[in-house]
Amino acid sequence: MAEDLNWAVGGEAGDGIDSTGKIFAQALSRAGRHVFTSKDFASRIRGGYTAYKIRTSVDQVQSVVDRLDILVALTQRTIDENLDELHEDSAIIYDGERSWEAEIPEEMNAVDVPLKSLAEDAGGAIMRNIVALGAACEITGFNVEYLDEALEKRFGGKGSKIVENNKAAARAGQEYVQEHYDLDHLGYNLETTDNDYVLLNGNEAIGMGALAAGCRFYAGYPITPATSIMEYLTGRIEDYGGHVVQAEDELSAINMALGGARAGARSMTATSGAGIDLMTETFGLVATSETPLVICDVQRSGPSTGMPTKQEQGDLNMALYAGHGEVPRFVVAPTSITECFWKTVEAFNLAEKYQTPVFLISDLAMSVTEQTFPPEAFDMDDVEIDRGKLVDEDNIDEWLDEQGRFRAHAVTDDGVSPRAIPGTTDGAHMSTGLEHDELGRRTEEQDERVEQVDKRSRKVETAKENENWDYREFGNEDADNLIISWGSNEGALAEALDYLEEDGIDIRVISVPYIFPRPDLTDEIEAADDVIVVECNATGQFADLIEHDVLTRVKRINKYTGVRFKADELAEQITEKLSEEVPAQ
Fold first, then answer.
1. Are 146 and 66 in a shared domain?
2. ∠ at Cα 531 (525, 536), nearest 5°?
């Protein structure tokens, strides 16, 4: 019985690769199996090679690995691209009736299934991917009936006949393999359980977190890989009295979101690196006007257009420093899909408590990865909403000057001024991008300038004292070897520990979800013999911050190929890095 199975489907854009993968992932999760997915798609409008990989187990899985057990190859390129991950027990499903002749290594199991013909018999050639799913079910010992519910969810809106045709196509693939092949020697028999899992990706978790946090206005412009946040909110936020607006560009999007926040709605925009470039103009206005706003950056490979559909963590410095002048901000970087939910809730609270922009930093790998979780991982009863110093007619008097004018930018000990949304009795005020006094009136008075700059800066100091800027750790807390990570690398690191343990290497891992402010790791680093920072960029942007904080050089593992870290690959790189000398001071 194989509890850990790696499956993939690949072909060209238009072959239904994404829908095939999602259907199988949903079926596996509904059968009580854990799922972790990975996607590969070309950065071209006209399409290109596309692949969808699924790792599944009865135990939780948090990473992809360099192994493929079942490959559905709709093109020869699919085989060529994945050859390094195939092994002698791999089964390759292909359609020998098509014009291409599959080149499959002799030691592997070639499963020739007339996908197109069987699909046509079931109602249409377009269902050949579903025939392949049925064939995969037979090879892996996975009950094809688990596909039924996933097919109903996927095609239910197109009518019962379409659903029944797809079910017939799946069974045609299953029966063909059953009649023509004996693959019992492979030993695949996917165990099912009674567990009930939620299957979602990072962008969906961010969207769900925004709704739970009370977000009622979202403005954005479509951009890979952030667009699906807007897609998730559209049709859902309206149920809570909110609105989604697709703007004409990123600059318009952030200014619309700014307007929504000024009107009193919890507001958000999301984009990727190229969009953040355009939004930068508004960052200072958000901070100077003391408007609470959540700005989500789902990172991708840059600079410029870069590789829009590939992984990278290269925007950290932009999130920290973008904008002219000095812009107080918070930078939060979820390290898992569940954290995409919870850190989004936290981002909205931080934005309103401190009336400042909050950057929520994710990345492509996490945004498109679908993973299974128990429903209690997203317990809405645990969601807390803190709207900060919102005033109303009962407590606004203490914030009025001698002439009854509301001091929207009042100088306070904690740096946070009172906030009155439009319509609040006696709360009328103005705010501009110009430096201003407590009433929001333009000023160039030196004392007032210093007071306002210092006040805005005190927000961060107050937050450092009052909020929990902690990290999560796992592995051996007494180990001499310390790995520090941020963002989506956590899952691969967690599984890499298993490989390292087999080699007798003890590791302590610290995963940091806060970029600014960030936890003080001085004691942890001083206690370690070896310190390695793992991240998906070329220059080691987070490693630079760590070195700045602790005045100690660290070792670095940087990946910038456009592909996420894999657990076994990462374990090998850690082993190699431990044998190297620490860089000179």
1. yes
2. 120
User: Residue 212 corresponds to which tokens in the numbers above?
Assistant: 């739970």
pTM: 0.95
Domain that holds residue 330: 198-380
Any idea what the Cα angle at residue 191 is, between residues 188 and 197, rounded to 5°?
A: 130
Beta bridge partners of 380: none
Residue listed under structure tokens 């898992």: 336
Cβ neighbours of 503 (radius 10 Å): 9
Parallel/antiparallel/unpaired status of strands 357-363 and 293-299: parallel
Query: Of how many residues is the chain composed?
Result: 585
Q: Is 338 helix (H, G, I), strand (E, B) or coil?
A: helix
Contact 330, 350 (CB under 8 A): yes
Pairing between strand 370-373 and 357-363?
A: unpaired
- Answer whether residue 385 is part of any domain: no
What are the Cα distances from residue 533, in Å, to 416, 474, 570?
A: 35, 15, 12
* Per-residue pLDDT, 1: 38
Q: How many CB atoms lie within 10 A of CB 54?
A: 23
DSSP, residue by residue, 348-370: HHHHHHHTSEEEEEEEHHHHH-E
CATH of the domain at 488: 3.40.50.920
CA separation for the pair 300, 306 (Å, rounded): 8
Contact yes or no for 272/225 (Cβ under 8 A): yes
* pLDDT tens profile 208-219: 999 999 999 999
CA atoms within 13 A on the CB side of 65: 23
Nearest to 498 by CA among 476, 482, 477: 476
The confidence score (pLDDT) of residue 49 equals 85
